[in-house]
From TrEMBL, chain A:
The chain crosses the membrane at residues 12-28, 121-142, 163-187, 207-227, 255-273, 285-308, 328-348, 368-386, 393-410, 425-450. Residues 50-91 have a biased composition (Basic and acidic residues). Keywords: Membrane, Transmembrane, Transmembrane helix. It comes from the Bacteria. This is Quinol:cytochrome C oxidoreductase.
From TrEMBL, chain B:
It is found in: Cell membrane. The chain crosses the membrane at residues 39-63, 83-103, 115-135, 161-183, 223-242, 262-281, 302-323, 343-362, 369-391, 411-431. This is Hydrogenase. It is a multi-pass membrane protein. The keyword Transmembrane applies. The keyword ATP-binding does not apply. The lineage of its organism: Bacteria, Pseudomonadati, Bacteroidota, Flavobacteriia, Flavobacteriales.
């Protein structure tokens, strides 16, 4: 049996406490009024920060708003001429009055972005850790359904990671409910004023509406959690069984779950991620999101396995198991890049305005995170994990794993932030605080679950193969 | 690479009382024996179809592309449909030999040889379409970046059609090398068993002097693994590049980002169906039922079911996003597919590709040879229509209603397609009589872990020890 070391437990509490402080600070320091924003912009102007040219753009008219509108910040109530309807732009008069209105609109627009920023930081981190645990659950289901002979010694680790799905999903669900209740503006289509002026979103309200959105979320989360609990229960019952009945039940449940998963995962990604940019769409998006959190889930399995092995808890895990996990980290990293490239290149190549704006804002405003994540998620792991000997070294796995996890956090950051905070992004106290909070919670929940059952699934019919596994 | 212990729940992959020598004899029998009447009948039919195809191609090249049914609006129709279809079929071979190798699937060993042969023969068929759908095929060499006397006039590397050239030629070369490397020990086996000087000479040349030393085997394994690692991204990229032909365009119904992985899934889907079709016949005619067992067929059916579901998920995604996008052209493209003049082809594609693999959820159906055979044919028909639907229905009605038209194939379109089917079977029938159709060296490597005989022996030996796993028996 595993005992949760008190140092690790304290560490997780410290992370949670620091996270709460950071998030609290970011909410408290977020501007409340237009005057606050004016002060911030003035300070930026004085320092010659990036707000300077933004300001200038606003005074001159179209420039700054041209691309800000693409991030659909039509949310500000006074926003009439900056919808995506291009004919509305004709209303601009180059007189002083208009310039003043324009400035006022710009301030409200920035205020809106800055108010959403701490919420987005929490949302990105909450979603990332929840999906990471879902990725581990999907991996677990695949291992079960494929009757893998190498991985059963790691099943309890995977079950531990997937236990975070329950609190993680509840937190994300609460955030979604808060959105529908108009507490935050991550999802612009939830704002009735915006919808009233935007005929493109109006056409989608049959799908993008609060109640239906929450019902879908509840069904998906319920289905995932149900499978997680059911397979965990059977896995424990199989330990003391005399036959393989629970193993067979798990096999069937895993196959059914995977069918449910492929559908729910696609729709989930449209709902919770793609819809933050309600004007933009991509058919590949669901699978792209999947690859991102799937590789993160596998990486988490590898990191926790290496940790537990180092503490002497996983008797039968050898370097071959680690090697296999590392191969998956390598392979799925390449797969993620393949999907990233397919989506990016096809839109870049065809250059159809309504699609390509998605990448235009990211390349212009998020240049470093956008291309930096490619280095972290592809170049680095591919170069380091191609070597067979390296894939058996714990420190390489830990190093590559941390880079991959950070890289995929940035991937989620890049998916959410441009739509919610636009060019006002920054990885500061709020963002780091949110990551620390959910990391602490993740560690606490996962390692608590690991103490609840023996770390070796005893009577799994494939466990002997797994114990003797050598590659 | 295989662990020395195998769980009792795993079913044997070699059934019947087989030893190493039996494998050799069973694999060599079709090569060493003489062709029967059925083989000659099948070969004659295939050859006739092939020659008819040659005639149609000659007619096209001599007279012009106007002999086909393509028109000013629908510039691509059967030519590219058949091209994508054949490339897709070719993918299963590499999938079986490379991806299943990476996933250490022992059941691949009985089927990889024939699957790879199928890959190579179908890529050859596919490669003819890009050449002969050209208006001036005699200038086809201009697609190559060769220094020349036109001021070194170069190709534009921005076109997916040029990427196709590189993708297909690389794919064919790598598959050929991968296949041939695996054949060396098996050709050596035929060489060592040859009784006539002629066959001795032929198989001596083909086997490159393979002598099966430890060092050779070690390197052989290493090369197989590296090639499998290279062939996997290759196989994904090849069909991805084929999908780019459509997805990079601005045509509603073509320009969609899901095409790359969805084409790949469709390729696995149709490729496995074709492997199933061929192997179900081959195991019977060549008496290889002990190696290509019902379990192999069941597993292929499961792959078909999984990839069929992925394809189905992609169809639904495309439909949803067409609606969600709010782009009228996109919405109309899908409305036209479902209710336009080619509704029947869309319906056929949907039924064959989405409904038919779902019946594999029933064990009774996926373990029935007859049902598997029928479904494998249905899937191939469905996948042909998938390409036809994507290509023709997106082209015949797009942005300008004044350009709307219909497409009607001519006998030359059909003749070329029939010709490639004939050519494929000519090659496959010749292969099945002159090549070792099962990788005997690989099958022998799983004899001790996965054959029925050894499994029984192991159970008897370990029957009374206190390993918990033996309680199942």
């Amino acid at each position: 049996m595993y005992t949760f070391s008190s140092r690790l437990k304290t560490f997780s509490f410290v992370l949670i406490a620091l996270g709460i402080l950071g998030i609290g600070y970011s909410f408290l320091t977020a501007p409340k009024t237009v005057e606050d924003v004016e002060k911030i912009l003035a300070a930026e102007n004085a320092h010659g920060g990036h707000g300077a040219d933004h300001e200038a753009g606003a005074a001159h008219g179209e420039d700054a708003h041209g691309h800000a509108a693409e991030g659909h910040h039509e949310a500000t109530a006074s926003h009439t001429s900056h919808g995506n309807d291009t004919h509305a732009e004709a209303g601009h008069q180059p007189d002083v009055h208009a310039a003043h209105d324009e400035h006022q609109e710009h301030l409200e627009h920035v205020l809106h972005q800055l108010k959403t920023k701490p919420w987005s930081a929490v949302y990105v981190a909450a979603l990332f850790f929840m999906l990471l645990s879902l990725g581990a659950l999907a991996f677990y289901a695949i291992q079960n359904a494929a009757q893998a002979g190498w991985s059963p010694v790691l099943f309890r680790v995977m079950e531990g990671i997937s236990s975070y799905l329950i609190p993680g999903a509840i937190i994300v669900f609460i955030l979604l409910v808060l959105g529908v209740m108009d507490m935050h503006h991550i999802f612009i289509w939830m704002d009735e004023d915006v919808v009233a002026k935007d005929h493109l979103i109006q056409a989608k309200t049959g799908y993008l509406n609060g109640p239906f959105f929450l019902i879908r979320a509840a069904i998906f989360m319920g289905g995932w959690i149900w499978y997680r609990q059911y397979s965990r229960k059977n896995s424990l019952l199989q330990d003391d069984a005399n036959d393989n009945i629970y193993y067979k039940k798990n096999f069937k449940a895993s196959a059914s779950f995977l069918v449910f998963f492929i559908i729910s995962e696609s729709i989930m990604s449209w709902d919770w991620i793609m819809s933050v940019d309600p004007h933009w769409y991509s058919t590949l998006f669901g699978w792209y999101v999947f690859a991102s959190f799937f590789v993160s889930g596998i990486t988490a399995i590898a990191l926790i396995t290496v940790y537990l092995k180092a503490k002497g808890y996983l008797e039968y895990v050898n370097t071959s198991h680690i090697h296999d996990l590392a191969k998956f980290m390598f392979g799925i990293s390449v797969f993620w890049t393949y999907l990233w490239f397919s989506q990016f290149m096809l839109m870049w190549y065809a250059d159809i305005p309504e699609e390509v704006v998605y990448f235009k804002t990211r390349i212009e405003d998020y240049n470093l995170p956008f291309f930096g994540m490619l280095v972290m998620n592809f170049v680095f792991p591919v170069l380091i994990l191609i070597n067979t000997d390296f894939k058996r070294l714990s420190w390489i796995i830990v190093m590559a794993g941390i880079v991959i996890l950070c890289g995929h956090y940035i991937d989620f950051f890049n998916m959410i932030m441009p739509a919610t905070v636009g060019d006002r992004w920054f990885i500061g106290v709020g963002e780091i605080g949110a990551v620390l909070l959910f990391l602490g919670l993740f560690i606490f929940v996962v390692f608590t679950t690991l103490t609840k059952a023996p770390l070796l699934a005893k009577r799994n019919p494939l466990i002997e193969e797994s114990k003797h596994f050598h590659y | 690479m295989s662990s020395h212990y195998e769980a009792p729940i795993r079913k044997p992959l070699i059934i019947g009382d087989k030893n190493y020598h039996d494998v050799t004899v069973d694999v060599a029998r079709p090569v060493e024996g003489r062709a029967n009447k059925q083989w000659w009948i099948a070969f004659s039919i295939a050859l006739a179809a092939f020659l008819w195809g040659v005639g149609c191609v000659a007619y096209t090249v001599g007279t012009g592309i106007g002999t086909w049914g393509s028109n000013k609006t629908v510039g691509w129709a059967w030519d590219i449909t058949n091209f994508v279809w054949w490339v897709g079929i070719g993918h299963a071979g590499t999938l079986i030999s490379a991806v299943l190798l990476l996933f250490r699937q022992k059941w691949r060993m009985a089927i990889n040889r024939s699957a790879e042969a199928m890959t190579i023969f179908s890529v050859i068929q596919a490669a003819m379409f890009p050449v002969f759908h050209m208006g001036r095929p005699w200038l086809a060499y201009w697609v190559m970046p060769i220094p020349n006397q036109f001021g070194s006039l170069w190709v534009n590397f921005n076109s997916p059609l040029l990427w196709d050239v590189f993708a297909i030629s690389t794919y064919l070369s790598v598959s050929l090398v991968f296949w041939w490397t695996g054949l060396l020990p098996d050709f050596a086996m035929l060489r060592d068993r040859a009784i006539t000087p002629f066959t001795k000479r032929v198989y001596s040349i083909l086997s490159f002097g393979w002598s099966g030393r430890a060092k050779d085997w070690q390197r052989f394994e290493e090369v197989s693994l590296v090639l499998a690692g290279l062939a996997t991204p290759l196989v994904l990229s090849v069909h991805t590049i084929v999908s780019f032909d459509f997805a990079t365009s601005v045509i509603p119904g073509w320009h969609t980002t899901i095409l790359p992985p969805y084409f790949v899934a469709g390729a696995i889907f149709s490729g496995f169906a074709m492997v199933n079709t061929l192997l179900i016949i081959m195991r019977k005619l060549s008496h290889l039922e002990a190696y290509i067992t019902i379990q192999h067929i069941e597993l292929m059916n499961i792959v078909i079911m999984i990839t069929g579901s992925i394809v189905g998920c992609a169809y639904i995604t495309e439909l949803f996003v067409a609606w969600y996008s709010g782009v009228e052209y996109e919405q109309y493209a899908f409305l036209n597919r479902a209710t336009g003049p080619y509704w029947w082809s869309y319906l056929l594609m949907m039924t064959c590709n989405v409904v038919s693999p779902q019946v594999m959820w029933f064990k009774k159906i996926r373990t029935s040879i007859m049902a598997s055979f029928i479904i494998s044919l249905v899937v191939n028909i469905g996948m042909w229509f998938e390409r036809f639907v994507i290509i023709v229905t997106s082209l015949h009605r797009d942005y300008l209603p004044s350009s709307w038209t219909m497409f009607q194939p001519t006998f030359v379109d059909a003749g070329f397609f029939i010709g490639t089917i004939g050519f494929f079977f000519v090659l496959f029938l010749l292969y099945s009589r002159s090549f070792p159709v099962i990788a005997q060296a690989e099958v022998k490597s799983i004899m001790k872990t996965s054959s029925e005989t050894y499994k029984r022996k192991r159970d008897q030996e370990h029957g009374n020890d206190n390993h918990s796993h033996s309680e199942n028996h």
